[in-house]
Amino acid sequence: MTIDSGRRPAAGEPVGDVGVTRPGPTRRPTSRPAWLGQHLGTAVVGAVAGYAVGHWLGNQIASAYPNTAGASGLNDTAVVLGLAFGVVGWLAGIGALNYPLAKLVGREPVTPEPQQGWMRYFKYSTDHKVVGMQYLVTVLVFFFTAGLLAMAIRTELLTPANHFFGPDIYIAVVGEHGTMMMMMASSAVVGPLGNYLVPLMIGSRRTAFPRVEAASYWFFAAGYLVILTALPLGGFPTGWTGYAPLQTQSAGGMDSYLVGFGVIGIGMILAGFNLAVTIIHFRAPGMTWNRVPVFVWSMLATAALLTLATPTLVAAGLFGVLDRTAQTAFYVTEHGGSQFLWQNLFWFFGHPEVYIMALPGFGIVAEMLPVFTRKPLFGYRVAAAGMLGVALLSFFVWQHHLFQSGINPDMRPLFMLTTELISIPTGFIFLVGLGTLYKARIRMEVPMLFALGMYFNFLIGGVTGVFLSDVPVNVTVHGSFFVMAHFHYTIMGGLIFALFGGIYYWTPKMTGRMLDQKWGKIHFWTMFVFFNLTFFPLFIVGLLGQPRRVFEYAANLQVWNDISSTGAFLLGASFLIFVGNVVWTMVINPRTAPANPWASNGLEWQTPTPVPYFNFERIPVVLNDPYHYGDPEPAPVADLGAGLAMAVAGATADPSTGLDPR
Amino acid sequence: MSAINPAPGIPGLIESPEEAEYELRAAEGSVWTGTRLAIGIVAFAFAGLAFAYFYLRSANNDQSWRPHGVTAPTDIGTSIVALTIAAGALALLGNVRLRRGLRADWQVAGWTVVATGLLVVALQIWELTRLRFFPGSSGYASCFIGWAAMNIALVLGATYWIETLLARGLRLRRALVEEGATPAALSAERLFRANAEGCTLFWGFTAAVAAFFWLLFYIF
Amino acid sequence: MPDAPAPRHFRRMVAVWFVLSAVTDPLFYFLAGPHIPPGKMTSSANGAQFDFNVLFIIALPVVIAVWVYLGYAIWTWRASRGGPEPVAGPYSRGHLGLQTGWISVSTVIVLGLFVFGTYELVVPAGAGGGEGPNPIWSPASKQILPVQVIAQQWMFTYRYPTYGGFETRNLVLPADTNVAFHVTSLDVIHDFWAYQLGVKADANPGQDDVAYTSTGSQLGRFMVRCDELCGIWHGAMYNTGHIESAAAFQSWATTQEQTLAATTKLLPPFAWTYTPDANGADGGFYPDNRDPYNKVEMYGAQKVTS
Asked: CA A392 → CA A397, A621, A641, distances in Å?
C-alpha cells in the first residue's frame, strides 16, 4: 500500500511530489492524438494476451492433474491462471501498473495531463469525477446485462413445465444474473456517486488516494468481463451463493465465479479504502462531523463495510480456487474440510454485503428529501447513528442465512435477536424520512418520486425481513421465492430506486445536462408500478411453496408467475424509457442544465458546471450544514473564497477547531 | 515549493501556502489512517484463514484434521517466522534511527529488510516443495497451503512498500542535495516520514501475523 | 409547532391509522389467517402458520402507519402544481420526544418479537427446522418414528430404520405421531422441504440433520421439494408424500419391509450418514479394490466407523 501525494500534475506543472520542483520527463506534445497511448483498447489487448499466457502456463503446470473441470474439458488451473493473468494484462494495458512498477526504482508518478473530451473516459484517470462517470456507465451496463438475464429467467418461468431453456442453460442464467447483480449493486452507488460527489460534498479538491480509486474502477470493470466468461465456460450451477461441495464439483464457469468475485472484491476494498480515508481526512475546514452531509455518512458506513467485510470473501474465494486447482480440501468434508466453512465465510461477508447495498440508498434519499421538502433533515444525528448502527450490527447476523442448515441450532435465538435488532437502526432512516416530510413543502420532482418510491418499497422489504428473521416462519419461507422477493424489494426497490433518483438528481451536476423531467416521471411510474407487479406476486408464490432457482413449479402457481413475468418484461421496457431519455437529452438534443436546478444548499452545487479539474478554486470553509432550509436566519453553507479562514485552518490539523460548530 | 503553485485546469488558480499546508496535513493523516485501515483489511483476510483453521480443527471431519500429527517442515517454518520477526524488528529499528536523522542507518536496515522479505518468500515457496503431505490430505494440509499463499502475498506486499520507500528516500536525498531544503522538498520529506512510520507499523503487523500462524501450524 | 393551530395533522393521521388497522387486522386474521401456508397438517406447520399470522398482525399496522403518513403528507403538504416554487418549510431539525418515542417503540416491538420467536422455536421442538446431528430441542414424548431422508442429485429416498431399514421413494407417515426426520445427503447440499408439514432441513453430506414434527389427524398428500440449489436438475427434484392412518401406515410399512427384504440386504447397512470417504461409501469405492487414493495407507487416517 503505497501512498503518494496524489497531486495530479498537469500541463504546465512540473511533475513531482507536492510540487517538488524538478524537471519532469520530456512531455509529449499536446497535439498527440487521444487514441494513441493506453486506453480501453490496449486494456482489452492486454487482457486477451494475459489470458492466453495464463492458460498456456496453467496447462504446463497442471496437465498431469486429473481434469477436474468435467464436461467443459478445461483444466481448472489453466482457466484460473488465464483469468488472473488476463486481469493483470488488463491492468497493464490500461496503464494501472506503470506507476507501481516505476516506483520500484524511485520514479516520480508520471500522470497524463488532465484530458478533455470523451476519450478521457476510456483511459486510466485519477480524476475522481472521470472515475465516477466511468463507474456510472459501467454500473448501468452491468445492470442492464444482468437485467436481460432476469428477463430470461422470467421467460422460463412463464409455464410450469414447458421449457424455453435446457436446465443447464437455465441454471447458468440464474447464477449469472444473481452474481452480476450482486457485483454491480455492491458498487452501484459507492462507485459512481460516492467517487464523484463525496469530494465535492466535503469540500475537497481530490480524494485521498486517486490511484487507488482509479485502480478500483479498473478492477470493477475487469470483474464484469471475468464474470461474463462464465457463460462460454459452461456457467456455474450454484447461484450467486456458490455453496460447496457443488462449487467443487462444478465446471469451468465456477472458476470465473471465484476469480470474478475475487477481482470485484479487490475493487470493492480499494474503493472503500479510498473513500473512508478521504472522508476522514479531506473534509474542508469547518466541515465538522455535525455538518457532514448525510450522504457522506452513508458512504462512510458503507466504506467501513467494504473494507472490513470483503477481505473475508476474497480469502474464501482463494480457498475455493485452491480446492479446485491445488487440490486442497477446505470445503471437502471427507478430507478434513467442511462445507459449512464456505457458508460461514461467505455469509460473514454476505450479510454486511447486503447492507453495502442498502446504506447508500438510505444516504441518497436522506440527502434529497430536505431539498424537495424545503425543510432541514429531521433528526440528523439519528440518521448518522442509524447508518453506523446498521453497519456495526451487520457483522453479527450472518448465521440467519443458515437457520435451516443444521449448524449451531443453539445459536438461532441469538441470531434471531441480532437480526431483529438491526431493524431498529433501519427504522431510524424511516423516522428521519417521515419526520422531514412533516408540514413540508413537498415538490414532486422526479428525484423526489424515486425517494418516496424507495421508502414505499423498502418498507415492504424491511417488514418481510422481520418475517424471515423469525425462525419458525423461516422454516417455511427460507430458500423460497419469498426470500427472493424480499431482497429484491430491498436491493432493487431500495438501492436501485435510490440510484436512479440520484441519477436524475445529480446528472445536471455531473454532465451539465438535464434529463427530461416529463419522461423521467413516466420512467418512474412505469418502473414503480411494474417493479411491484413483478415482485409482489413472488411473495405469494414463495409462501405457496415455490423454491428459488427452480425451472418447474406447481401448476396452480402459474397465474402468479405469469403476472410476475409480465411485470418483469414491462419493467425491462421501462428502462428503455430511461435509456431513450439519456440518449435524447445527453447526446441528440442536449439542453444545458441550470446551475442549481433543485435549489439545493449542498456544497456540491456551489461548484461551477462542469466541475473544474480541482473542484474548488479556493478550499472552501464550511460554515453550516447544508440543511438550513427554512432557517429564519439563513446562513451560507460555505465561504468559497476562503482566504481569511484558511489561515485559521492552516494553524491546526483538525478542521473542526477554531470555528464555531454552531 | 514556491508559495505560488500553478494549479492546472483552472487558469489563474493559485494555491496559497495555507491551502498547501492544509492538503499536506490531510495527506499525512491519510497515510496514518490508511495504514491502519490496510492493516484492518489484511487482518480480516487472515481472520478468515484463522477461522478456517479453528473451524476445521474443531470439526475434525472424518478424523482428518491432522492425521498422525502431520506437520509442515518445522525447520523451514521456524526460519521463516524468525526471519519475518527479524525483518519487522529491523524495520522498527531503522525507523527509530530515521527519526533521529540517521538516514544511512535506515537505508541499510531497509535494504536488509527487503532482502529478508525476499528470502522469506523464497523459503515459503521452497517449503511448499518439501511438504510430506498432499494438499488435500487433511484439514491441516489445506489450511497450510492457504497460509502459504496468503503469507507470500503479504510479505511481498510489505517488501514492495518498504522497497519503494527506500527508492523514494534515495531520490529525495538527491533532490535535497541538488536543490537544497526548498519548501517543496520539506513537504515531500514530511509525507515520506509519514509513509515510513506507516510502513514500519505494517512490518510489525506482518511479523505478528507470522508469529501467530507459526504458533498455529507448528506448535499447537 | 406553535404557529399551526388549525389542523391537527397528527390526530387525523392517528385516527385514520387506527381505523384502518382495526379493520384490516381482524379481517386478515379471520379471513386469510386460517388459509396461510403451510396449513395445519402438523404441529410445526400449525406453529409456522400461527407465527406468520402474529407477525402479520403486528406488521400490518406498522406498514399502514407509514403508508397513511406518506399518503397524508403528499396529499396535504404537496406544493401546488404550477404554483410558485416553495421557498421553505418550517425550520424544525428534530423532536426529542418523537425520536425517543420512535426508538422506544421499535425496541419494544423487536424485543417482544425476539421473545415470542424464541418461545415458538424452543417449545415446539425446533419448529420443524433442521437442528443438526445433536438436536437440543426435542419432543417430550419418547414415541418418535425415525424416518431417514437421503438426498442425492437429484432425488429423495427414504429409509425406515424401525422397519428393517428398507429404502423407498415413497414417503408415508402415520397420523397422530411424532416424527423425527434424519436428513442426510450423498453428494452436495440439498434441502428437504416438506411443504405442508412445515419441515425444512438442509441435507448435508456426512451429516445427520434432525428435524421434528408431529402429525395430526389430517390425512392426505404433501409436497416435498429440494430447497437448496443442488445442480442443474434442482428444479426437478420433488416428490409427494402421504399421511395415512396409523393402521394403514403399519400395514404399508410391514408389507414394504417384507417385499423389499431382498433389496435391503444389498444396501449398505443402515447408518445415519453415508457419505463416501476416500475409501468409498462402504470401503469399496473402486471395483477392483485397488484404491489409487487410499488415505488409510497413505496418511494413516483412521477408518471411520459410523
From this structure: 10, 31, 39
